[in-house]
Structure formats: C-alpha cells, structure tokens
Amino acid sequence: MPRLLPALLALLCFGPPTPAPSAALTEAASEPEEPWCPYKVRPEGSAGGRLCFRRPALGFQCSARSCRAHRSPGGALVANVLLNGSVLLQWATPRPGNGLRGFTLNCSWDGTYTRFPCDSVELGAACRDYLLPEAHGTVRYQLCLQPRYNAPRPAPPAHCVEFRVEPAAMRDIVVAMTAVGGSICVMLVFICLLVAYITENLMTLIIPALSRQQ
C-alpha cells in the first residue's frame, strides 16, 4: 500500500494521461488546406466590383473528348474551352520573388470591324485559374493575364491567349453525329455477323446436296 500511495496522489493531481493523437488526425493536421482564390469582376466601364471567392480546380486536365486547349506563346497561359461553352483559364506559378500582389485578367473580343472590351477580373496572388462560365459562340476572344507586383518592381509582360468557342448549335450537331456514327457502326457489325451466320448455314445445306447429286 505505501508503494501505491504516490501513484494515486499523482493521478488525483494531474489526471489521466493524455491519449496520443490518431494517425488520421495527424495526417489531416499535416496536410495544408487549399487556398481560396479571391477575385473581383469589374464590368465594362465600371470601377466597382464585388469581392468573391472560389476554390481552385487543382489537377484539372483537358480531355480531347470534352475540351480543347489553347496556349499562349510560351505556354504560360492556357484556355481550356469546354463543350458546355465555359472556359477554364490556367496559368503557371510566377518565378519566386517578393511583392506579388495578384493578377489582372483583361478580356476583349473581335467584332465585325473592331475589337470590343469585356469584363476584366482582378485576382489574388493565390489564384492559379479562373472560370469563364459562358462565352459567346463564333466570337474570337483574347484574354491577357498581367501579374501585379509592389513598387518599385516593374510589371512583367502580359501573357495573352486567343480562342474561338464553337456555337451551341455546332456542338449539338457534333454530339448528334457522334451518336449517329456509333449507332451506324453497331448496325454494320450486326449486319456483318448476320450475313456470316446466313452464309455458314447455306453452305452447310448446299454442300451435302451437291455431294448427293454427284
């Protein structure tokens, strides 16, 4: 009993030992959270704009069936034109350096005789992509991404990419032609199998008849 007395006093004073954190909690705490992308859309001819936040589309890759990628000279800016008419812009991380404030995305499109400006976007330094929810078909767009730094560092040259979005009617025609082409291929395969089956059965009937006539 005298030997157990110090252990009992320590338990009353300090409480039970703290359990060790589980492996799942340790891994969750060690993994960094994805940074939110703050951005502000400024309509044409307006100096205002509301601050918004979005999750970056990390790991997105343009698939040839549902997307068409257009790259700027040098490949620093990529416009992924999707079948639903939206455009996901992705850009490379600038070179390491202090004073990066964010990015400015300028938009314009070609008209019949001149080029018209569209909404510009100001993005935070943590942004690496931006989604244009809907782009007009048959219009050639030009998007230029300009990094912004604190003074006195000068702004580097902007990266520009040009692309054209297929009209919705053309996308529907392409989808319909793909579906019809797949159906035609299935029908041709079925017809070929049917012809082969009929030919084999006819040969099994004709060969014994010829043998009997001889």
TrEMBL record:
<dbReference type="InterPro" id="IPR034446">
    <property type="entry name" value="Fndc10"/>
</dbReference>
<feature type="signal peptide">
    <location>
        <begin position="1"/>
        <end position="20"/>
    </location>
</feature>
<keyword id="KW-0812">Transmembrane</keyword>
<keyword id="KW-1133">Transmembrane helix</keyword>
<feature type="transmembrane region" description="Helical">
    <location>
        <begin position="173"/>
        <end position="198"/>
    </location>
</feature>
<dbReference type="Pfam" id="PF17742">
    <property type="entry name" value="Fndc10"/>
</dbReference>
<protein>
    <submittedName>
        <fullName>Fibronectin type III domain containing 10</fullName>
    </submittedName>
</protein>
<keyword id="KW-0472">Membrane</keyword>
<keyword id="KW-0732">Signal</keyword>
